[in-house]
Each structure stands twice: as C-alpha cells, then as structure tokens.
Amino acid sequence: MTGAAADAAYRDKNVLITGGLGFVGSNLAIRLVRAGARVVLVDSLIDDYGGNLYNIQPVEDRVRVNIADVRDQHGMNYLVRRQDFLFNLAGQVSHIDSMRDPYTDLDINCRAQVSLLEACRAHNPEVKIVYASTTQIYGAPGSLPVNETHLRKPIDVNGINTMAGEEYHIVYSRVYGLRACALRMTRTYGPRMLVRHNRQTALGWFIRQALDGEAINVFGGHQVRDYTYIDDAVEAFILAGASDAAVGQVFNLGGTEPVSLLQLVETLVAAAGSGSFIVTPFPEERRRIDIGDFYADYSKIRSALGWQPTVGLREGLEATTAYYRAHRRHYWSGG
Amino acid sequence: MTGAAADAAYRDKNVLITGGLGFVGSNLAIRLVRAGARVVLVDSLIDDYGGNLYNIQPVEDRVRVNIADVRDQHGMNYLVRRQDFLFNLAGQVSHIDSMRDPYTDLDINCRAQVSLLEACRAHNPEVKIVYASTTQIYGAPGSLPVNETHLRKPIDVNGINTMAGEEYHIVYSRVYGLRACALRMTRTYGPRMLVRHNRQTALGWFIRQALDGEAINVFGGHQVRDYTYIDDAVEAFILAGASDAAVGQVFNLGGTEPVSLLQLVETLVAAAGSGSFIVTPFPEERRRIDIGDFYADYSKIRSALGWQPTVGLREGLEATTAYYRAHRRHYWSGG
C-alpha cells in the first residue's frame, strides 16, 4: 500500500490523536486533515512537554482541539467513542524528567495507557489504535542493526514505562481483540519538534543553538544513531493505521542512514548556515547511562507495510531549519 | 558459596521482607531466623493474596510483623531504614485478577516498587535488595530452555507490570548504584503456598483437590513446565542476598526436571495418596493466553552463585501434601 492509497482510508473518518498538539501529533493531524479526515486533537498542554497550539496553525480551522489530560479517565471514556482511528501519541518523553519524577512518568505512560485501552474496550472495541513507542526501550544494543526481537534493556524509568505502555496495547490486542499496534520510533526530527529546552531531545536543542549562531557542545561525537524525518514518521503512522496487517504487531522505524553525532552536527550547521560546534570528551556521569551506537533494522515494516525512510539528513535538516527561521517566535519560548 | 556459608552473612543482621507473610516470604523468614537474622515482615494481608499469619507459626516469637501495604509510601520510608537486606516479595501475582483490575496490579507491581526504591535511595542506599520476579514475563517461548536473554512477551497485565517492576530495580542499580538484583522464579510450590482459591496457581488448587479426594480437572495435559520446590527457591534468595556478584543482575530459577501437566498430576496423586484426575481437551478461551511448553535455563545462577534445584518433584510433593494434611485447617479457608 502506498501512502496515497492509505490516505483514502481516512476520508470522512473520525480520528482521535492524543498528544495531538505535540511534534508528531500535529504533523500527523495536518496530513490527516488534507486526506479528508475529521480530526480531534487531545492535548493537555503540560508545560515543557511539547504541545503547542501554533503547531496546527495550517489547519486550525479544520480540526477540533480538546484540551484534556489522558490521565482523565472520564474524559477519555467519552472522547474515544465514535472514533474510527486512535493515534495514541500522548506521553512523557523526557528521560531526565522520568528520573526526577518517576511517578508522573508512570501515571502518563502506564496508568493512562491502561485506562485508554479500557475505554476503547468498553466503548469502542472496533477502533484502530496506533501507539507511539520508541527504540529507546532497547537500551544498549548487543548487535546492530537492532530488530524487533532484540533484547530490551531500558536505561531509565521512561524506557521501562514506555515498554510497558507498548505491551499493554499488544496484550489488549491478543486477549480482547482490540485492533492495536505500535511503532517504535527512532530519533525523529523536523518542523514542530520541541526546541524550547534540552530535556527531551538533544537534536532539538542543537537546532536552536545553530539558528542562534551559538557553539554546540558535542560530547564525544562518535556515537552513531539513526534519525527519521517527521514526514517519513507520519507516513508510517498513516500506513499502520490503514493496514489490517499491522494489528497486534510492533514495528521499528529507522533512518535513511546511520550517522555519527559529529556528522549530524556538521550537517546541521551546514544546513542552517549558522552556528558552530565544539567537541569535548564524554563526561563520566553520562557514561553510566550511555548506550553506545544504535540504529534500527526497519525491514519488518518495509515487508509488512511497504514503509521506508525517504528524506535524507541534509534535506530534512534544511527543511527543519527553514521552518524554525520562519516561525521562530512561536517556538523559542512559551508553549 | 554454599547456603550454609551464605547463612553466616545474615547473622545479627537486619532483614526486611515485603510480602513476608506470603508463601515465599514466610519460608524465607523461617530460614533467616534460624540463620540468626533479625527479621521484620511487612504484609498487608490483603484477602486472597496469600499472606497468612499461620505461615510464620514456627518463628512467630522471633520475628516482628508489621502490617502495612507496600503502597504506603510513608510507612515504607520508615521501614527501610537501618535494614541490611530487603527481600522484596510483595506483589499481586494473580493473572486473572490483573486482567479484571489492571489498576490495582499497576499500583502494587509498578508504583509501589518505584516508591520502595526511592525510599531506599533516600534513606538506605547501602541496603542489599533482592526482587522476586517471574519467568512468566517471557510469555510463549521461541526456544527451550529459556535463558535470561530470551525475548520477553508477557501475556497479561501482571506479566507486563512484573517485568517493569524488575526493570526499575535494575535501572536503580545501574543509575544510582543501589545494590539490587532480581530472581525470575519459575512455578514454585511447597508448604505455605496459597491453596485457598485457584486464581494464583493451578498447582496449589490441585494439591487441595488431591487432599480432599476430589477429581482434578486437567486441561490438555501435555504442557511441559518446570517446578521449583520452596526450599530450593529460598536457597536462591539466601545466596543472591549474600553475594556481591548478584548486584545489577537478573537470574532465572528452574526445576530439577521439566514435566508434563499429566506427569505432575500423576505424581501429585501418588504423593498425596488420594484424589484422582480427569483429562479434558484444552478449552478455546484458554488457548488465547496459552504459552505452550516452558522451562527455564538456570545455568547463569549456577555459574554465578552456585545455585541449582535439588528437590525432585515426588519428594517435594510428598513434603507439601504432608504439610497440608497436618495444618489443613489453617489453609482451607480464611487468611
């Protein structure tokens, strides 16, 4: 199935996106509105989590925004009704915050996931559910590239809880027949990502520093990672939502090519046309939670759903820096 | 290290056991008291969970029982202080209950584990912690026997949350230097196991039926499993608590030999000298959560700590049925 063919599955359908004002949620919403879906966005706009009303500016008159917290079980019980699709993207994704406050991470990434699945089971058992998981649950890989059967060794509370959140979807699919699946996203970047602080993603912060003409502090520089451009990630959600073959499955996403941190920052500074970088040794306190090199094997989703990443790093970073140059005042501060 | 040598590590030491009035906790307490430890048992005696004051009858004057719930963060903050060892055995372990009420399972098996680890981190960072995990987190195995690097595919909410509970211990060990480890117990049986209802273990219920002279209903009968006798399981906790080599590690336990369900029930009826069994086809609704054959590879703990199971099934079931015959009125009803 191509993305264009998949788009037809959403025409005149009801779609709920949790975390809908966030990075991935808003980009997905824009795509779905253009495909003819009736989109409801649920977001609690918690400070610093990444939700931003400006993210949906291109479609703001064509979506319904419902400010609510996925931890609000009664609200979610109502909101899941009559939806054809549920893209479940609400989450606490900061690793640092998960260690500072493991309880909030647990409430959002575990308890709210259970209550959302219970809501679907009780009020809308036919809804198609796509859960946003992350390759970070693998921890330090034993071999590369990492496929879906690789041992998972999460390195922080956020990784543990996201792993559990994903497993609830798979268990509810197997035991109760819910039509749920999960995408393990690798590092994803692009317009509308959070650049306001550096607790969620290093790359968002680097982009901001490059555009501010600052020197980016690179620790080490040799760590290899893969990066998915947002349009590719959105395409994976579109395909997974539209395909019955995805039900009960977990799929890795991936990037066009693995790159070192040094290559990443060089490409960023070139794409931005501003900024610089300084390489310093890897600090000891980071070494304890370092995972070494990581990149994902995405052959399972390529075989099952025909997905693969198409936007290279230079092209993606040019589009990203161009976006923030044009819309900077909506992202540098405030939410 | 032998068990006897390990016992010396507990002489005049302070030991806290959560779930201390339960099956494993009480047997461990009896062993530790005999090794000269000062033992505090925390248990909330929740109906049907398995805690039973009669379990500690042989040492009741030599342990301190503190009725409290591990979800009580303030109580646990106090209780972990000045302990040398924490055997963390409190848990909701019924798979059926975890699907009926996933929130309670989450509160006990995830949230309370985080708060217990936070309590240790804040008030007793030197305490040695052994967490009781389960091989049930592996789900349906891809190959046999199952070692610790095998893919985990929990089949119910209880399996997911126990997996998370285990991972918190490992992450807190790696990130904060807590001296925590986990034992993945396989099916464990023996005196003081719960036989009051059949929602926790099938074997406990079978033992009760055999002693009542009833016909045990065996579904299928060919499913292979491994069973650990309680004294062997207690020995593993003793060794793991006493050994620095265990810190940050996860170990499978296992049984002397894998047996089919039919062999198990035949052995049980012979050991009890009463009861009978009827074999019926495997019901369709159980098939959805069936895991096929399972037995664990325990070579990691054998190499690292010198543990291996020593009590065969016939011997273990004879001791178990003899115990319940003698103490039946304390187990057939009430808690």
How does this structure look, described?
Two copies of one chain form a homodimer. Chain A has 335 residues and is α/β, with parallel strands linked by helices. The first copy, chain A, has one domain: NAD(P)-binding Rossmann-like Domain (Rossmann fold, 3-Layer(aba) Sandwich), CATH 3.40.50. The first copy, chain A, has a seven-stranded parallel beta sheet with strand order 3-2-1-4-5-6-11, with helices on both faces. A two-stranded parallel ribbon of chain A has the order 7-10. In chain A, strands 8-13 form a two-stranded parallel sheet. The longest helix of chain A has 22 residues. The radius of gyration of chain A is 19 Å and the shape is globular. At the A-B interface, α5 and α6 of A face α5 and α6 of B.
Quick gist of this model?
Helix content of chain A is 40%, strand content 17%. With 335 residues, chain A is an alpha/beta fold.
Spatial ordering of strands, largest sheet of chain A: 3-2-1-4-5-6-11
Q: What is the fourth-level CATH superfamily of chain A?
A: NAD(P)-binding Rossmann-like Domain
Instruction: Determine the CATH topology of chain A.
Output: Rossmann fold
Oligomeric state, counting identical vs distinct chains: homodimer
Helix count of chain A, per DSSP? Answer: 12
Q: What is the 3D form of chain A?
A: globular
List the helices and strands of chain A in order.
HEHEEHEHHEHEEHEEEHEEHEHHH
Strand content bin of chain A: 15-25%
Largest contact between chains:
A-B, 31 and 31 residues
How many individual domains of chain A? 1
Alpha-carbon distance between the two ends of chain A: 37 Å
CATH class of chain A: Alpha Beta
Number of strands of chain A: 13
